[in-house]
Each structure stands twice: as structure tokens, then as C-alpha cells.
Amino acid sequence: MKNTLKTCLVAVCSIAINFASAQNTFKTDQSLLQTINQNFKDADVQYKLMKESLKPGQFPKTFNPKTGVLETSGSDWWCSGFYPGTLLNIYKETKDTVLLSEAKRMLGLLSNEQYNKNTHDLGFMMYCSFGTAEKIAPDAKYKQILINSAKSLSTRFNPKVGCIKSWDSKKPEFLVIIDNMMNLELLFWATKVTGDSSYYKIAVTHANTTMKNHFRPDYSSYHVINYDPQTGAVIQKRTAQGYANESAWARGQTWGLYGYTLMYRETHDKKYLEQAEHIAHFILHNPNLPKDKVPYWDFNAPNIPDALRDASAGAVMASALLELCKYSDAKSGREYFNVAQTLIKSLSDSPYKAANGTNGGYLLAHSVGNIPGGTEIDQPLTYADYYFVEAMMRYQSFAKN
Ligand code: GLY
């Protein structure tokens, strides 16, 4: 009895000490919290501006500062979920029902994509939108759309390769990109809601295969792995959006960081936490990571320090680090939190944060979509705003605890 009491006391004390040290480790900056409050007010203004420029049936894609044109897409573009997702998250902060109505209108346009089996991006498209809606205001209709989306995404899984196919190809090849790690969250959600473990198993198998083949010894990652669809053998490791096959394309590194952090959250398997920490180490200790922590578009871009920065990679990185810091030991956690804090400060300021009434209504300027493809270069991007908003919400949550 005496011993049991002692054990209980020790447990309670250690929880209290851990809680206190977590509070210490992640001390929020009051002036940054005020900046974030202002950013949400600005976001409300900006997203109403964007809403006014959108043609019926169209989704925002980017804004060309030279022509002043808001470039748009249909619902089948991989980025279609970010606009409604961002509207919903801004609404969560500002309670501006204009944004909620606009988000609902866009969800209506997006719902057809639940049956789209031609893309691996259904996680981005449907989970960032309907998944966010489901968290804010659970709805049976949204739930069914998400389940159907997970089913569609699962059809792209090849058990021989152990991956979900990213890009379709007419050649006998099976292309998987590191970005695909981001689509797994939808599958975990589907298993939790339906009780069908097949989604979970696909996600875990995909993450394990990716861990084996996508990473170099220094934990930087290739963008594209080309597998033989019959045998699962690796045919080629290369880039598509990076500077070179052997370079470290910045956003790809941050997709991997975010992806393995979410793998740990969903499975509690330590190997994913270690993978995320190794990726974080590659990024954070890279001699080419600038002081303000907003990465160049590729860690090996030839013209550093004159290379373009990619605000979208910075936003994804900030959000991922604000989750990873909670799972790591105190020293690493503090490092991740501090870098995320610096990133949010940098992105909240010039030249990244756009002045109200400019930038086509986007919050952030200066992202890089695809330099080799010649598209969306040094322009705003929907996903830069989405992950910036998510990072700011995650930062605020440390002050609320
Ligand atoms: N392919 C998705 C991206 O540009 O990050």
C-alpha cells in the first residue's frame, strides 16, 4: 500500500514536472502572438478580396504580380482543397461568416473529386478541405465524401511496389514522389472512422517503402522514385521540380518532415519519429539554410545566396516543426519550436507578407512552384497560405495550454 502510494506520487510529480518543463520549453512570444492576431485580421480582408476576383466554378491557383491576373484552376487541380481549407481556418479565428459561406460554396464544387482515381493528391484536395470542415462542424455528408475519397486514393496502391502511385505514365513505370507522404493523413482518418484497417495498412506500407527508397544517407530525399510496377524494383531516383537529380528540393524536404511527423502521431511507432528528426537535422543544420529560416527553393541551387526563396517550404516547415517539437526530447523540441517561431516572424514581415489589397488576396508572396517546369515562380501559392495559417494556429495553441 505504502509502495503504491509512493509510485502514484512519483508518477504525479513527474507528470507535473514534464508539464512545467514543456511550458518552459515552448515559451510563446507575446509580440508574435499579437502579430498573429493581426495576420488573421489581414487574412480576413485578403481572402474576401480573392473571393471577389474568382470566376464561377474556379479555384485560385496563383497570382501573377506582373500581369495582375489571378490564375485559377478547376476542382481537379491538386491544390483545389487549400482555398476552402484556408477559408475555414480563418473563419475559425475571426468568426466571419462571409468566409464560411464561401468555403461551403467551394466544398460544393469540390465534392465531385471524391471519385477521382486519377490523382494521388486526394489527401491534399479532400482532407485539407472536407477534413477541416469535419473538424469545425462535423457533418455526415462530409464524412461520406472523405470515406469515398480514401477509397479512391486506395485504388492507386500497388502491393508489389508497396506504394500509392503518384503520377500516371504511359510507360511501364510506377512513379512515386515524396509529396505523397502528405496524402496519408486521409487514410488514417478513414480507418479511425470506418474501422477498416486496410487504409491504415496502405499508409504504413507506403511510408515504409518511401523510407527505404526515397532517402539518402544524409536524410535528404529524392523527389521522384521510379519503380518497376511488376517487381517493385527501383529503376531510377530523380527530380522533377528540383535543381538536379542529386539535389535537395526544398519543399520536398519539408513534405517529408511533415509526413513522418504525422506518421508518428498516427502510429506512435518510434522509427517515424526518428525519421522526422533526421530530416529536421538535415534541414536545420544545412549550411544553406538562411538566418531567417525561409529556405532557398533548392538547398543545392547553384546561385545561392541569390537563388529564390520558397515561402511555401518555409510555411510547411514551420507547421511540421510545431508538431514535431511536442514529440521530441526537450533539447530538440526547443530547437524545433524556436526555428518555427523565427519562420513565422519572417513570413509575417516584408517581403513575404503581402500588404492588404495586393498580391491577388494571398497572404504570402514569394513562393516557388516549379522552376524546371517554368510555372509559378516567385509567386503566391494556395498551399503557402494554407500551411502558414496552420502554423499560426499551432503556435497559438502553445499559448492556450
Ligand atoms: N508537387 C507538389 C508540389 O509542388 O509541392
What does this structure look like?
This protein is mostly helical. The chain has a single domain, classed as Glycosyltransferase (Alpha/alpha barrel), CATH 1.50.10.10. Helices cover 55% and strands 9% of the residues. The strands form four sheets. Strands 5-6-7 form a three-stranded antiparallel beta sheet, with no helix packed on it. A hairpin with a 4-residue loop joins strand 8 and strand 9. Helix 12 crosses helix 13. About 3% of the residues have low confidence. Bound molecules: glycine (GLY).
What's a concise summary of this model?
By secondary structure, the protein is mainly alpha-helical. The protein contains 13 helices and 9 strands.
